[in-house]
Amino acid sequence: MGAPGAVGPTAGVPPYLPAPPRRARQGLSTAAIVVIVVVVVLMVSVVPAAVLYVLVSGLSRSTGITPGSLGPTLNSTVGPVGTPPSYYVSVYLSPTPGLSTGEFGLEVSDSAGHAQSVIAASAHCVQGAGSSGPACVAGATGWYAVLLGPTSKIVGTYSLSGGHPVWTNLPAGSSAVALSSSDTLLIVSSLSFANDGYSLSAFGTGSTPVWGTVSPL
User: Fold this and answer.
1) What is the rounded CA–CA span in Å between residue 85 and residue 163?
2) I need a surface site. Which of 77, 133, 156, 206 has the fewest CB within 10 A?
3) CA 111 – CA 216 distance, rounded (Å)
């Protein structure tokens, strides 16, 4: 036996007395787990929001493109006029500032979404004398569009040229014409668009998205 008062196994001290240090270590482990859980919760809630913000703000800055709109409003429909009959649809424009004819094309579709044929217009639409408006007649089939400036002068024609619908009949030396809120779009057609679910739509022809729809015509 050990000496009286001695500390050790032979003194009758149970071998599990060192347990308190273990409890201290367990306490540290529990605290660490709590910290980890808090960090994970913060990551789950904060990180996705931050990533979403970066993506959205990054997209808006990276493209630098402002979508354009014609802002079209149906004004009037006239026809039939003459033989063969011609129909005219007048559309007021309220375009995005800076939008030009070089950035968009036009499409007329029926109620089933089928695009109607664009025709050449060089022999069908001429500027009237003096301050009078243009003198335009429809072809045997299809349609074309005339862009009229503030004084009803022709500043562009959307028609078939070289096998593709493009803006032609522009002012001398111009490759495109900037639109203004005083412009009017005149659709000239051999068919009546009224009451048949036809629609006029604009679409971008370059990197800039362009829209604008009049439905029905």
Assistant:
1) 25
2) 206
3) 9
